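WARN  no MSA supplied for this record, continuing single-sequence
INFO  ligand: calcium ion
INFO  echoing inputs
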Amino acid sequence: MISTSRISSSAVARVLFCSFVLAAFSAATAQQSVAALFTLTDDNSVAQFDTATQSNNFNWFVDGNDILAQQAFWYRTGSAGPEFSLNTLPIAVQGTTDANFDGNPDTLFVRYNGAGFRAETRYTLDGGAPGSGTSDMGEQIAITNLLDSPLDFHFFQYADFDLSAADSAFFTNANAVDQIGSGLRLSETVVTPVPSHREIAFFPVTLNKLNDGVPTTLSDTTAAGAGDVTWAYQWDVLIPPSSSFLLSKDKSIRLVPEPAAGALLSFAGGVLLARYRKRRSA
Ligand SMILES: [Ca+2]
Ligand SMILES: [Ca+2]
Ligand SMILES: [Ca+2]
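INFO  complex generated
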């Protein structure tokens, strides 16, 4: 046994230094866990995040209109058990940067430490010109398997946009969605790779599935409305050891006036007339 008197001054210095490092690390960790609210600003757009709750991306203003209630991610490992919101994982590092050097933070990076994996999300807001009604959010997600065996991973994106109290939404193909309400049309294109499953539903059907404690497979329902519609995507992947599953999404918002019924009818009439003339001239 080593007596106190035999501890050298260099050992004391080492202990003091380690204590200092630990204290500094604790302070930094505390600061990071407190700073859960982040705002990205670019041209006509402002996006707000709360990484401490499953709200995650809870506001997205385009030309002053807040069109987003919630955009967040859930995961499940293996075929059994519940899904968890990413915010339930410890956050290793998070913060914003000003990637286009215009003085406003436009990029949010968050790294989560899971059991046997690491998840990283990066959001980059690219606003349109004032009054254009356009906005863009680039999203890069990387799930890295830290195990020596393949990781059975299930990843979910959930989005609840609100243009009005009675929106309609439908998938226009495997990875794009249109939502209509308040005389506006929002088009969102997402995703490589194409998701394994998807779902459009009325709030809070999908959110309840993600939080219900049992494994979920999305329903592949492709349309819903009118009401408080939401949509979600699901990726089922087997990630090899020491490899990453990379997800690249681009949410391109175009808030454009929905074509009026009269305009649609006159367009349809024009198409019929053109076909009739074509047949007659053939
Ligand atoms: Ca910027
Ligand atoms: Ca579930
Ligand atoms: Ca909604």
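The CA atoms of residues 82 and 120 lie 21 Å apart.
INFO  checksum written, moving to next record
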